[in-house]
């Protein structure tokens, strides 16, 4: 594969993955910023998305694990792709620095800060929009999500503070 084609494919992949990262980040903020009462009221309507949202929110620990696993897998993939590309142009030391800076800037702006602001500013509409896709992700990644869910619940039980990692979102 030519270096130009590799660069084009890598840039396209990073843009696609940043979009997925933005999805997970905005979803997390939107869903966890909603009052439980609002979600319960919406679930009483005929909007099926609201029922899915309530089901997700009812197990908020598993929901948070799903969103964090999805987002971290995507962000690590972004870092890996950027590393391969940058390492093709720079020696090892500068490549590590350039990759760290470039990936951090890209993920923070396009995968975290802007999407979270969007999710917060459009939380009701966005939470309903993303409920079904999140539910699908949870089912597709279920074996992996279950491992992290069980491990983190057990680890949280050992922590001498409130073990609900999602509690700050729900208060």
Describe the model.
With 171 residues, the protein is mostly helical. The chain has one domain (3-170). It contains 8 helices and no strands. The protein has helices at 3-32, 36-43, 48-58, 60-87, 92-121, 123-140, 142-158, 167-170. α2 (36-43) crosses α3 (48-58). It is elongated, with a radius of gyration of 18 Å.
Task: Kindly summarize this structure in a few lines.
With 171 residues, this protein is an all-alpha fold.
The fraction of residues in strands falls at under 5%
In terms of per-residue confidence, which ranges show pLDDT below 50 for 5 or more consecutive residues? Answer: none
- In DSSP terms, counting alpha (H) and pi (I) runs of 4 or more, how many helices? 8
Q: Write down the domain tally.
A: 1
Task: Give the helices and strands as they follow along the chain.
Answer: HHHHHHHH
Principal-axis shape: elongated
Radius of gyration: 18 Å
Distance between the termini: 52 Å
SS class: mainly alpha
Sheet having the most strands: none
Count all strands and give the number. Answer: 0
Instruction: Compute the average pLDDT.
Output: 93
> What is the share of helical residues?
over 70%
């Amino acid at each position: 594969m030519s270096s130009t084609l590799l660069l084009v494919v890598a840039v396209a992949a990073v843009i696609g993955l940043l979009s997925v990262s933005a999805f997970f980040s905005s979803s997390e903020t939107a869903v966890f910023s909603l009052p439980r009462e609002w979600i319960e009221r919406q679930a009483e309507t005929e909007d099926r998305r609201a029922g899915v949202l309530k089901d997700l929110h009812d197990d908020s620990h598993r929901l948070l694990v799903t969103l964090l696993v999805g987002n971290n897998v995507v962000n690590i993939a972004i870092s890996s792709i950027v590393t391969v590309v940058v390492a093709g142009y720079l020696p090892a030391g500068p490549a590590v620095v350039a990759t760290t800076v470039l990936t951090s800037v890209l993920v923070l702006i396009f995968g975290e800060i802007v999407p979270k602001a969007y999710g917060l500013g459009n939380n009701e509409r966005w939470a309903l929009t993303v409920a079904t896709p999140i539910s699908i992700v949870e089912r597709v990644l279920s074996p992996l999500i279950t491992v992290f869910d069980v491990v983190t619940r057990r680890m949280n039980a050992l922590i001498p503070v409130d073990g609900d990692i999602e509690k700050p979102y729900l208060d």
